[in-house]
Write a structure and sequence with these properties.
Blueprint: H1 3-16, H2 24-39, H3 43-57, H4 63-66, H5 76-89, H6 100-113, H7 117-133, H8 138-150
């Protein structure tokens, strides 16, 4: 994993944990997508990396501390979109709104990324369209975004 990918993973984990929970679906989704990308087809490497990334997801990442680093210029929009989808994916069935702690973490991330408001609006609209395209399944939309990023597309 590159240092930039490590930072992105840590930020995503911190945003996902901002509501005090990380669902099994979120964990499974992240690990199922990241492990093969980082370990290739080697089963032993995948097993080792699965455990390592699992532990990293449960590490105590301080979002404010992570945001003291420079934002990754060429992945800022991707990070915002993925964070938006991740927060939506963490919603419990029947929840219609993002919980305040997640909203605050997301807004702080938006501020840090320093993207123009019209770009943020477009990213959010596109992410919402992804959810609709994936039949209201933010996890499916999130999976597609992770595959696109780590697949090099």
């Amino acid at each position: 994993m590159t240092p930039e990918q490590e930072l992105l993973l840590q930020i995503l984990a911190a945003v996902a944990w901002s509501d005090g929970r990380l669902t099994r679906q979120e964990i499974r989704l992240l690990l199922d997508q990241l492990v093969p990308e980082f370990a290739g087809q080697d089963v032993v490497s995948q097993d080792h990396l699965w455990s390592e990334l699992y532990d990293r997801l449960f590490a105590d990442y301080d979002l404010e501390e992570l945001l003291q680093k420079s934002p990754p210029d060429h992945h800022r929009e991707w990070l915002l979109r993925l964070s938006y989808l991740l927060i939506q994916a963490g919603a419990s069935p029947g929840e219609t709104a993002i919980v305040p702690a997640e909203q605050q973490a997301y807004r702080r991330l938006v501020e840090w990324l320093n993207l123009p408001p019209e770009v943020v609006d477009q990213i959010e609209q596109t992410a919402q369209a992804d959810v609709i395209f994936h039949q209201g399944q933010p996890l499916a939309a999130l999976r597609a975004q992770i595959q696109q990023f780590f697949g090099g597309a």
